[in-house]
Predict the structure.
Amino acid sequence: MRLGVLSSGGDSPGMNAAIRGVVRQADALGIEVYGIRRGYQGLVDRDWRLLRSRDCANILQRGGTILHTARCQAWMEPEVRAQGAAALKAEGIEGLVVIGGDGSFRGADRLATEHGIRCGGIPGTIDNDLPGTELTLGFDTALNTAVEAIDRIRDTASSHERLFLVEVMGRHSGMLAVHTAIACGAEAVLYPEAADDTYEALVTQLRANWERGKKSSIVVVAEGDQAGGAVAVSDRLRRDHQLDLRVAILGHIQRGGSPSAQDRIWGSRWGCETVKRLAAGEQAFFLGCHQGQLVQRPLSTVNDPPLAPPSGFGEMVRVLSR
Ligand code: F6P
């Protein structure tokens, strides 16, 4: 049997652990694995090569993805998917492991349903917003990176008695923002799924803290929040309240770096298990985590509403900042 593996969409720490898991589990079962470069683009371009166990030496602890990644807009076109499927069939690649987020899984679901290619997904995105799994590769690492950065900002914020707005990633998701806010004791958090994700609600919260005698504050802002992101919110605060505040945008720092133990372990587990299930004939599925256990879901689950931040986290940030 011959399988392909690709990483697609935004890279996330733990993807290399998953690639290593796929290649070495396949090796143990006598299955060949082709590493496809740059996600679906590499599939269309037949940009692949045989990966052996030794090709995965010393990648477990490395961030990013050795296969490179891309957001392939062309994959939305049915003709392009047909071209990719034909390329896989011509090479004798019967199954495909796709490591990525929601867009990557949608692409895999279409490849499976339209062309009968066996597809198994491994959740890889720092956003942790996929329906059907409590965890995605990279979230834990990105969260710890953000918390470490904000701990440093906290030192200078309290020394200067300043307000800082810190923007974390999450174009459509507040998962990273709310978890970061709890973990670093932020005074407020703005994120897209919050009912009160408004400038006015933020000002009320900040004012309450100022009245309690707080001299410095950290506000965590999700990239995709409804108030317009950290820069827009800071402009308004400066104008309305004449504050000497500062903005820090953590950006892609959160996407890089050595994966946490948790991301390495889940990458390895999902990598091994995806190969076993593809070899057993499973089709159009992805693996996830539910109540701490490894679970299998249909790829079509990706069309359900995205995973939202736990209810009550926004309120907890407010209570804990008293
Ligand atoms: O999907 C993961 C993510 O990191 C989002 O949180 C962020 O909005 C986006 O990718 C950034 O993408 P790019 O790498 O294209 O700037």
User: Anything to note?
Assistant: Residues 139-160 form the longest helix (22 residues). The pocket of 6-O-phosphono-beta-D-fructofuranose is lined by residues 10, 101, 125-127, 169-171, 223, 255 (CB under 6 Å). The mean pLDDT is 97.
